[in-house]
Protein 1
Amino acid sequence: MVTKARLESKSVTVSTNQNVQLLGFRLDDQEYALDVSEVVQVVRMVATTRAPRAPEVVEGMINLRGKVIPVINLRKRFSLPPKPLSLDDHLLIAQTDGRVMALLVDVVSEVLNIPASTLDSAEEVGPHLSAFLSAVAKLGDRLVLILDLNRVLTLEEEQRLDRALAQAPVQV
């Protein structure tokens, strides 16, 4: 049997007996995941520098080994209640289509090796979130929302971010 799963902003045909590897993370009590091929590393929260004129979902910037990386606040992206930043928060450094970004999450939880047969269309969670998701994994009574990294920012937000980063100081 073959199923279609849209991971990494493209349709991927996978056999239902194949597994998909994801890195799980949490925002409040909801589980999310990202394809492990997009993950660069996970770090504890560090001080950020505000990026003037950056989109609202951009919390700021960090300096990671000499490279300026935008920090995306997924709480703002998903319209979740704000939470004070804490040193217990995690930054999930991810890369796709040439852009590296740090995703601000409550905690990175686990590596998930799940059967492709558990993946369903993201439209099941509703239009507000499905715009940012590639699929939903049904694991027993758990739902894991799989983030589409290429759609975390809108085209307009990407353009605003590029302009803001071009004006950013070299030392963040």
Protein 2
Amino acid sequence: MTDQTPQKKQPGHWWHWAVLSILGLVVFFVPLPVRATAPTDRIIHINASRFEYDPAILKVNQGDRVTIELVATDVVHGLAIDGYNLETTTDPGKTARLTFVANQAGTFRFRCTVTCGNMHPFMTGKLEVGQNSLLWRAVAFSGLVMIAAVWMGRK
């Protein structure tokens, strides 16, 4: 004799996916809270040598008054910040100063404006104004994916 007992239907877990979908939409579309920090004066010293800036990534808060002190260590170098229409150049051993208010949030590329050799096009850096919301959204979304994987593994 074979066992002909009817199989019970598993209760639907559609609500798990509905919750995850709603949380996913929240992660992508709800603005992140912005820390209320008073604008400050920031002085950032950058060494420019053949094909690199040190440091290459600058992080400031929106509203900060930023002064970049650019020092060329080997040949003439320049620095231009895309999106801010700012530019300066400096001779070896000299310091050029560039002062501005970081009033635009986002990530802006800066680059050398003086041809300093064959790798000149790769002499770039980043100015990050405000918090990196893309990073935090990616972390939150990854957490949602891990929760979904756990729910799938429990079936």
Protein 3
Amino acid sequence: MRRVLLPILAVLSLGVVLVVGLGQASGGDEPERGGAQRFSLASAQERLAGAPAPLAALHAQANELLPGGERAFSARLRALRGHPVVVNKWASWCGPCQAEFPFFQEVATRRGKSVAFVGVDSDDSSSEARTFLRDHPIPFPSYEDPDKEIAGRFGRMGLPTTIFLDERGEQVFLHQGQYRSSAALAADVDRYLTR
């Protein structure tokens, strides 16, 4: 009886280990949400109320995909002088960009009264980008960059890329690749843009 029972228990134990392990592994690729509820753009805009005028102008265009390319983007950066800026280059088809969007939602909502956040939708279809933004809203606007003219001002870079500009508009840091957590993004904001 023991000889029959031991192999059965071993197989059952192995099955439990596999089920638990696979369940944890499948959750390993999910973005860190820290137990946060689904993002609400309306709530984010309420939290951002009272920001200085240049930042409030950004919040008024939250989640919009703005035309005008490099010229409009440069004009926006000039309007933001005096405030540090985080520029996130993304595309709707980019998996790592999609994975880090929740971190930008969270950090831009927490820090958006003192730090400007601006998106650059590069090498993408406007209709697909708008659909993506409808499903993944952010509390700041993005500029269309189908020909990569905006991205070109920062040099050759892949997706996603995050550029940190100081109050004078000078680049102080460039993070290539996906942020893995909101804490990592917030740490870079603190390290490079706050004193």
Protein 4
Amino acid sequence: MTLNILLPKAHSEQRRWQQLALENEVTLTMVDPWLIETLPEQPQTKSIWLNLDQYQGVICVSPTAAKVLIDALDCYWPMPPVGVHWLCNGPRTASVLKAAGLNVRYPTEGNTAEDVLELPETKVTASDKWLIVKGEGGRVTYLETLKARGANAIELEVYRRSMNSSVMADMPALASQCQALWLSSEYLGSQLLQNNSDFWLAWVGQWWLSSDRLQIWATKQGITNTIVGLGATPEALGQMIKQHSTNL
């Protein structure tokens, strides 16, 4: 039986994951549960964009955040400000920044906030200014850690995430045909349980998780049929397929 993995990813990202199916002889059931709304620019937001050269570092938490940042640079900066550390958590977000000519850094292993905060650029000195470009809500690890290290760090929320209710309603039926679910977002996992906890807590498939942090979350929810990978990239999922597909 061919391994079938339920893979929730935005439409814009799905193509780069499709190669996994060809390389590993698996089936990827891909769905896009996300609704992304860019927030209107407020006067405070514009002021931050105009003063980007005052920041020692800017962290983009997602491709959407990176796209908004690039649009702001195109609007307000003929040339990107120099002397700024441009950081992100992984290659997909980095590709957006690199396409705009920014010299971006991200961890070579791991794609979590904790991994980013291990980069030497984040060893801040007192009064350094840092900007975290992100969506509404989500983790505050960057903000809290940089502040604890002495930086003057702020968050700039530039988009809003919500769930596509029809896709969320379809996911239990799709999962019933799959042996594993790839999960790289605690928010999505929480929404799945909120929408249909009876199904997801009784589901016999495996939860393939992208980080130890998600493993901690899953344990708290009572989810025990889990396997933890080494990141949220296609390469990390490919490694999990090679290691664990024969156990399903």
